Amino acid sequence: MKVSYGVLRKILLTKVEDNSLFKLPKDQEITLGIDEHARLKKKLATTITLIKPQKQLLGIIAKSTSQATKEWIDNNFSLEERLRIKEICVDMTKSLKKPLQLAFPEAKFTIDKFHVVAYLNNLIKEEYSFSSKYGLREKDKRKLPQRTKAMHISRILAQDGNSWDKKKKDKVKTVFSLMPRVAELWYAKEEVRAIYKECLDKKEARDRWQFVLKLMPEVAKSTLAKHLEEILNYFDTYNTNAFTEGVHTKIKKQKRVSYGIKNPEIYVKKMELAFIPKEKLILPHTF
How many CA atoms, within 13 angstroms, populate the side-chain half-sphere of residue 192? Predict the structure, then answer.
């Protein structure tokens, strides 16, 4: 059933309660997932999920700022609940860390492995882009694989190599021969993937990470070394933000069929509406 924006707005404001999804388990230690997603062009929203003891969306904050996050936490968490938060899965951004540390003093931070690998893939992409523009002679530039919609080299290098067919392997071989720095970063990224798959404890992971850090550019080395303890915290509980990323996938679908929502309050209610249990959505036919 199609409705106008005005009718939709009225339904959302009158029938969808604020923080309608927020519900914490009692008397149990809690792991949260906190991540940002694009709300409108360059404007970000914050997603807060419950990862343990069960998985559910707790709420969406229309802004990704320290002040907005602090206000949302103050309005929803009691002191007793805050002290039961023992772990928070996050990415490497600094903006939200300080208010979260103050709000949840018992929580340790775990940087999600998805974001670590994504950061390394971005390094590879930047190195390839810089080298292809400024680091090669003209005759070597002509040897690089031609960019196509389905076969851009940065997309291939983001993969682990096991899925490459002969055509992709030939392209990568050419790139690696012309750009040894790209090859070095790719192998470092694959070592990180192997660390997550193979290491049985934090000590083994730490030792292997020291090798990875030696291959990083200075800025990246500094960033990763600064966050290394939070990266290694993964090996204590093996918790990730995979559920939170799944929530973002569903939000993207909602945004696609909504054709954009500029009002922050309406945006939050519309996105949260997709996660409300069906039994709570029985509404009268007229408004």
Answer: 27
How crowded is the C-beta side of 43, counted as CA atoms within 13 Å?
A: 11
- Selection from 236, 152, 166 nearest residue 202 by Cα: 236
Q: What is the value of pTM for the model shown?
A: 0.86
Provide the residue type at 117 as one letter. V
Return the SS3 of 56.
strand
All structural domains of the chain, each given as residue ranges with its CATH number in brackets, are 14-112+240-280 (3.30.420.10), 114-235 (no CATH)
C-alpha 140/C-alpha 43 separation (Å) is 40
> What CA–CA distance (Å, rounded) separates 82 from 150?
47
Answer left, alpha or beta for residue 232, where phi above 0 means left and psi between -120 and 50 means alpha: alpha
Q: How many CB atoms lie within 10 A of CB 269?
A: 24
Contact 119, 92 (CB under 8 A): yes
**Amino acid, single-letter form, for residue 109:** F
User: What residue type is 280 in one-letter code?
Assistant: K
Helix axes 113-130, 218-226, angle to 10 degrees: 170
State the Cα–Cα distance between residues 175 and 182, nearest whole angstrom.
8
Instruction: Going residue by residue through the chain, which has 287 residues, state the pLDDT in tens, using 9 for 90 and above.
Output: 566 777 777 777 777 777 778 889 998 999 999 999 999 888 999 999 999 999 999 999 998 899 999 999 999 999 999 999 999 999 988 888 888 999 999 999 999 999 999 999 999 999 998 888 888 888 888 888 876 544 588 889 998 888 899 988 998 999 999 999 999 999 999 999 999 999 999 999 999 999 999 989 898 999 999 999 999 999 999 999 999 999 999 999 988 887 778 888 989 988 988 888 766 655 555 54
Question: How would you label 187-205 residue by residue, b for 16+ Cβ within 10 Å and e otherwise?
Answer: ebbbebeebbeebeeeeeb
